[in-house]
Design a protein that fits this description.
By secondary structure, this protein is of the alpha/beta class. It is 31% helix and 29% strand. It is built from 14 helices and 28 strands. Keywords: Oxidoreductase.
Length: 508
């Protein structure tokens, strides 16, 4: 018999992976009570995600674990494209200590370590809790409560069924999402499916590495190799027709696969070895009412550009402040409809980028593919081409109710504000620590009065940059990078949303 809990209830988040836990932390920071539901107990011990870019690290900072994440991750030196003899033919280095978001541009880590940090931070938040051994069976709309959601649960240990009323439900439950099925969403195939053998291992003897990611562009056996924190390493090998994971997991076969890195039988302590199917998929709908999809429940991307986890964190960052505003009485349709409208096209662009890179670097064994690989390397050596490729996966949202239409090609609307280190009241801090949790306005003394009035109406904190009349609540004493950013966008002020996306700019 099902037990039903009364009341509107908290926001329920289905799935305690990094996306679900980050969403809970962001909501709790905004004063929203939430509960994370997880059908298993404890941290999944095996490594899965291993890469996060600087924008993803910035979101973890917002969730409260930025410095802790830096302690469990290592900056990656960049990416190399190697031929079948492991000779580099293109290289893209990350030489700066921090990217535009204030963190290393590429970070390598062990996912169980990240989940531990997120759970520890969650335990410190009174408004957030985690319920393990709790399996979601269905999600529906309760009678007489059009704004609420009814979640049907089963205790994985006892089989006891329960119903919870929720203010909203976030489906962060992965590729086989129950929440996605409940809202009638379907995954659209973006025409990429490949079988790969993934190997995570420890080695007592350091293996040759330059500190970055190696992509082996070998038509006979495409592969990826990268170092992880401590003595861990990851290999990914594309599987051939007829090969099985059971055969490839044999110690002598693993030694054969990895011997080009100097390993022998018995050298590696295997942490995980198995077959994984890399897919490109995106859900046709991400929302029904107050039930929404995030992360792998909404989109699946091949790992070639390392954006799988980052896409889920961007979902959480985009949605959390909007949902908090809805629960405070904001316009539900404007706010929640904008979630898929903004995140969907960007997620699909990232997936297409990963597919194109996958095909160019590893795809096919015909003559055209053999020609395409070195050609891709030559093109990617050209700074302008490389910048264009990176721009294709950079966050940029199109015009809508929460992003004003761009006035010119360099307009900043729809893009993230950078996060330099600034000086305020004699102390240095990352910009996000100064902006606060709501809207914010970065303005020079030449900003028109109308934008200041608009900022006050939104409750925005105003930060003054540069010379001229003081126009802000806070003065940035060392804001050269922000001034240069505004100048590049031909703006005297930028109005920022709570997720640090530029809502609007005013001309210089």
């Amino acid at each position: 018999m099902e037990q039903e809990q009364p009341g509107a209830g908290p926001v329920l988040i289905v799935g305690a992976g990094p996306t679900g836990l980050t969403a809970a932390l962001l909501l709790a920071r905004l004063g929203v009570a939430c509960t994370v539901l997880e059908r298993r107990a404890g941290i999944h011990p095996l490594p899965r995600a291993v890469h996060l870019d600087d924008e993803g690290a910035r979101i973890l900072q917002r969730a409260g674990i930025g410095d802790a994440f830096a302690g469990i991750s290592i900056p990656a030196a960049g990416l190399r494209l190697l031929d079948a003899r492991l000779q580099p033919f293109a290289q893209f280095r990350h030489d700066r200590p921090a990217g535009v978001h204030g963190h290393p541009e590429s970070n390598l880590f062990h996912q169980p370590d990240l989940e531990r940090l997120l759970r520890e931070e969650l335990a410190r938040r009174p408004l957030a809790q985690l319920r393990e051994y709790t399996e979601v069976k269905d999600v529906s709309r309760p009678d007489g409560r059009p704004e609420g959601v009814l979640v049907h649960l089963t205790d994985a240990r006892t089989g006891v069924r329960e119903q919870l009323r929720a203010a909203a439900v976030l489906g962060c439950d992965g590729a086989g999402s129950t929440v996605r099925d409940a809202i009638g969403a379907r995954l659209r195939d973006l025409r990429f499916t490949e079988r790969w053998f993934v190997l995570d291992a420890r080695s007592d003897r350091p293996l040759p590495t330059w500190g970055g990611v190696d992509q082996i562009c070998d038509p006979r056996r495409a592969a990826t190799f990268l170092p992880l924190p401590g003595d861990r390493y990851r290999w990914e090998f594309r599987m051939r027709p007829g090969e099985t994971a059971e055969d490839m997991m044999r110690p002598e076969r693993i030694a054969t696969l990895t011997r080009r890195w100097g390993t022998r039988v018995g050298d590696l302590d295997v942490l995980r070895a198995g077959e994984y199917t890399f897919r490109a998929r995106i859900a046709d709908r991400w929302r029904r009412g107050r039930v929404l999809l995030l992360g792998d429940a909404a989109h699946l991307t091949p790992p070639f550009i390392g954006q799988g986890l980052g896409a889920g964190l961007r979902d959480a960052h985009n949605l959390a402040w909007k949902l908090a505003a809805v629960l405070e009485g904001g316009d539900e349709h404007t706010l929640l409809d904008s979630y898929q409208a903004e995140r969907g096209p960007h997620a699909e662009a990232v997936i297409h980028g990963a597919v194109l890179v996958g095909h160019a670097m590893t795809g096919g064994q015909d003559l055209a593919a053999a020609l395409r690989r070195p050609a891709a390397g030559v093109l990617l050596r050209i700074p302008g081409v490389r910048t264009a490729a990176q721009r294709g996966i950079a966050t940029r949202y199109g015009p809508g109710p929460l992003v004003e239409r761009r006035r010119h090609r360099r307009d900043l609307s729809g893009t993230p504000c950078p996060q330099p280190t600034v000086r305020v009241d004699g102390r240095q801090a990352r910009l996000d620590e100064v902006l606060g949790d709501g809207y914010a306005l970065l303005a020079t003394g030449s900003a028109p009065r109308s934008v200041l009035v608009r900022a006050r109406r939104l409750g925005a904190r105003t930060l003054h940059l540069g010379p001229g009349p003081h126009v802000g609540d806070v003065t940035i004493e060392e804001g050269e990078e922000l001034l240069a950013w505004l100048e590049h966008g031909r703006a005297s002020a930028a109005l920022l949303r709570p997720d640090r996306i530029v809502l609007a700019t005013t001309p210089r």
